Amino acid sequence: NALDRSPTSRDVVLPQPTMNNIGEIDRLISEASQSLFQRDRLVAFILKDTYLSQLQSLHETCEDLDATEELHTLYSIARRIVLLNDSSIFEHIVRDENIVGFIGMLEHDPKHPVERGVYRDFIDSGSHYKEAVPIGDAATENKIHQNFRLQYLKDVVLPGILDEGTLPVVNALIFFNNAQITNYLQNNESLLKDLFETLH
User: Fold this and answer.
1) What is the pLDDT of residues 60-102, one digit of tens each?
2) Which residue, 44, 66, 47, 54, is CA-closest to 22?
3) 55 and 105 in contact (C-beta within 8 Å)?
4) 12-46 tens-digit pLDDT
5) Which of 129, 139, 127, 128 is nearest to 185 (CA)?
6) How far is the C-alpha of 105 from the C-alpha of 57, rounded, in Å?
7) In angstroms, rounded to a whole number, what is the distance separating the alpha carbons of residues 14 and 46?
């Protein structure tokens, strides 16, 4: 399957990633990104399918084989996905099942490579997250984790990638999450009481 660019096309479908076709996938994503119509459908494809996990699985294979050229192409694909400038894509990237594998692909910047595993080890360690008091709400805890990952992407992983269109998308997501977190805390008197007691 290749990218269907006919005027009546309602969907964008990318081929299943393999070492032989990732150059073609990189090109197809680049082409789709030039059209608002196609970009929206590319985003929909990435969100509804398991495409990120397929890319991450291929990335693991390429690392095992030390396939440098393919790793650089996977970096380019991940970079293009970031530059789709879509908030739903960022929310998808920072999900538990996606974040480690996705930032792993971004470790292989051909111009500014980092030590293999450095981004993944930091996110995967869990040592950065300490609860002063139990939050007691899964949705709020998820927003806190999501914001940490977004901030790490923004400050550490993506400074050389983010453009003037992408940065506001990330900042808006962080702001929205912070508003929801703050609202939950302000309306939870018992949690605030426990927090103040802990601090004093």
Assistant:
1) 999 999 999 999 999 999 999 999 999 999 999 999 999 999 9
2) 54
3) yes
4) 899 999 999 999 999 999 999 999 999 999 999 99
5) 139
6) 10
7) 9
